[in-house]
């Protein structure tokens, strides 16, 4: 099939390359000419494991092309995915849907035959319906542009796998009980290789799918995405709140998380206590969810998310406070190695990164913070040009009074504490992600401290 993907960030570029991997002819579109030029050469402008390989393969095979030209896109395809960003609006909590709207207003008048818009971006509930109204207004006489919603659940670091092997496929359509429309059929046809992977002909004929498929209305599909992210954020903040109590009571939150996580109803995943969540999704999505609920008159329903947000932001301050305490009440003149800058490992994304946030706060308190990250240094330098940077983990630890693990990269977990001890000035390590082998560090002479571990 021929399809186009608007937006070539973590979501759009991954989706475009993954659709080519399924055998489709794909055109990626972005307004950023520099980004398009790199992608067209087969280069991924950000770090995402596994993506460079499939991108290059399909740029070379000719299945995947990139352009900044909307008219070319309108001519090329009849299935258009939206994967542009919906950042937090300046000055308030709501999501900025300008880029999503721009796709429809630019594309609709250029169409010469009926087509489908598939929204993948995370949007406030009601957006899809509004886009449908805009599409109806803007398409030429006799041309129908149908809007369907297909939220994306991919995690950075696992984006290709999450796209090609999703836990479920959710498709929102205007009327889920009616006969399948052109839009619904085209989208399911595009996902056929995912939906029926490994099925026998009989299973396929019986309408079974290999990946669970949920067809629902537009509003539910939009809400599925923000609800999933709000739940994950709540789970992380729950364990971080309990972590605060553990600190006060002298208990160990990691053992507690293991124990409650063994209950199948709870599960251990996303009970990792530490510096909390950051990134381009969870923080902004819970805020946008609250803002949208407020607009709908259901603000009371989500006031707890304010607390989820507050608990999360408090982690960063608590970490800085722990650093101050372990340094005897002041950081002035001290040198602190901050290992990690990305908001999570296997990513170079520093949007709302707890790691960089604490590095900034440490330096405000008079410490000399020296940051190292295996992938995110370039992005960090752009955002925080005044922080100190090193080009290796041991380099950052050189002369450090204090070492903080802020992102749980495997490389940091595997660090040999004796090598750190050989270059550092002090013998204190703060484990911001509860990821280090504690005994090893203690055996090497370090004082090991972490949030939520009173012992
Ligand atoms: C998230 C959702 O998981 C994904 O489904 C959605 O499509 C986009 O938002 P992502 O932002 O890539 O994905 O990261 P995720 O792996 O969910 O981690 C989010 C943040 O939570 C990171 O900062 C991570 O360090 C933190 N986290 C995660 C914890 O603090 N503890 C945990 O136990 C798990």
Task: Tell me about this structure.
By secondary structure, this protein is of the alpha/beta class. It has 2 domains: 2-211, NAD(P)-binding Rossmann-like Domain (Rossmann fold); 226-450, Rossmann fold (3-Layer(aba) Sandwich), CATH 3.40.50.720. It has helices spanning 10-21, 33-40, 51-61, 70-76, 98-107, 127-138, 159-164, 182-190, 192-195, 201-205, 218-249, 253-261, 282-295, 303-326, 354-364, 377-383, 393-397, 410-413, 417-423, 438-443; strands spanning 2-6, 25-29, 64-67, 79-82, 115-119, 145-149, 169-173, 213-217, 335-339, 368-372, 388-389, 402-405, 428-431, 447-449. The strands form 3 sheets. A 6-stranded parallel sheet has the order 3-2-1-4-5-6, with helices on both faces. Strand 1 (2-6), helix 1 (10-21) and strand 2 form a beta-alpha-beta unit. Helix 13 packs antiparallel against helix 14 (303-326) and helix 14 packs across helix 15 (354-364). Bound molecules: uridine-5'-diphosphate-xylopyranose. Uridine-5'-diphosphate-xylopyranose binds next to helix 11.
Helices, strands, pairings?
Layout: E1 2-6, H1 10-21, E2 25-29, H2 33-40, H3 51-61, E3 64-67, H4 70-76, E4 79-82, H5 98-107, E5 115-119, H6 127-138, E6 145-149, H7 159-164, E7 169-173, H8 182-190, H9 192-195, H10 201-205, E8 213-217, H11 218-249, H12 253-261, H13 282-295, H14 303-326, E9 335-339, H15 354-364, E10 368-372, H16 377-383, E11 388-389, H17 393-397, E12 402-405, H18 410-413, H19 417-423, E13 428-431, H20 438-443, E14 447-449
The structure holds uridine-5'-diphosphate-xylopyranose.
């Amino acid at each position: 099939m021929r399809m186009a993907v608007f937006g070539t960030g973590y979501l759009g570029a991954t989706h475009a390359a993954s659709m080519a991997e399924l055998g489709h002819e794909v055109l990626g579109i972005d307004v950023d000419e520099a980004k398009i030029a790199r992608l067209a050469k087969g280069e991924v402008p950000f770090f995402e494991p596994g993506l460079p390989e499939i991108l290059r393969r399909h740029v070379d095979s000719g299945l995947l092309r990139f352009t900044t030209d909307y008219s070319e896109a309108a001519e090329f395809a009849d299935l258009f995915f939206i994967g542009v960003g919906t950042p937090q609006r300046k000055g308030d909590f709501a999501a900025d849907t300008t880029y999503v709207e721009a796709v429809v207003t630019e594309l609709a008048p250029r169409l010469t035959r009926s087509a489908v818009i598939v929204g993948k971006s995370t949007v406030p509930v009601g957006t899809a319906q509004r886009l449908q109204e805009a599409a109806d207004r803007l398409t030429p006489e006799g041309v129908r542009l149908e809007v369907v919603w297909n939220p994306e659940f991919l995690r950075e670091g696992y984006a290709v796998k999450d796209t090609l092997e999703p836990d479920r496929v959710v498709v929102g359509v205007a009327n889920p009980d009616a006969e399948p429309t052109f839009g619904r059929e085209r989208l399911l046809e595009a996902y056929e290789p995912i939906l029926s992977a490994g099925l026998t002909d009989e299973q396929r004929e019986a309408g079974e799918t290999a990946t669970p498929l949920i067809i629902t209305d537009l509003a539910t599909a939009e809400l599925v995405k923000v609800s999933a992210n709000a739940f994950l954020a709540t789970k992380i903040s729950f364990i971080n709140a309990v972590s605060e109590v553990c600190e006060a009571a002298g208990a160990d939150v990691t053992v507690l998380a293991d124990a409650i996580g063994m209950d199948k109803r709870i599960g251990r995943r996303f009970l990792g206590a530490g510096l909390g969540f950051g990134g381009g999704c969870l923080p902004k999505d819970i805020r946008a969810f609250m803002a949208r609920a407020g607009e709908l008159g259901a603000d009371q329903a989500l006031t707890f998310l304010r607390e989820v947000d507050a608990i999360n932001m408090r982690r960063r301050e608590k970490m800085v406070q722990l650093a101050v305490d372990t340094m005897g009440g002041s950081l002035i003149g001290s040198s602190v190695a901050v290992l990690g800058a990305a908001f999570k490992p296997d990513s170079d994304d520093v949007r709302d990164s707890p790691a960089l946030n604490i590095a900034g706060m440490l330096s405000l308190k008079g410490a000399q913070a020296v940051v190292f990250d295996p992938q995110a240094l370039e992005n960090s330098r752009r955002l925080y040009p005044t922080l100190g940077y090193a080009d290796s983990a041991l380099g950052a630890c050189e002369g450090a009074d204090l070492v903080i693990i802020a992102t749980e990269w495997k490389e940091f977990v595997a660090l040999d504490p004796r090598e750190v001890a050989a270059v550092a000035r002090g013998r204190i390590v703060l484990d911001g992600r509860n990821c280090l082998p504690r005994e090893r560090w203690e055996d090497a002479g370090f004082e090991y401290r972490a949030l939520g571990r009173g012992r």
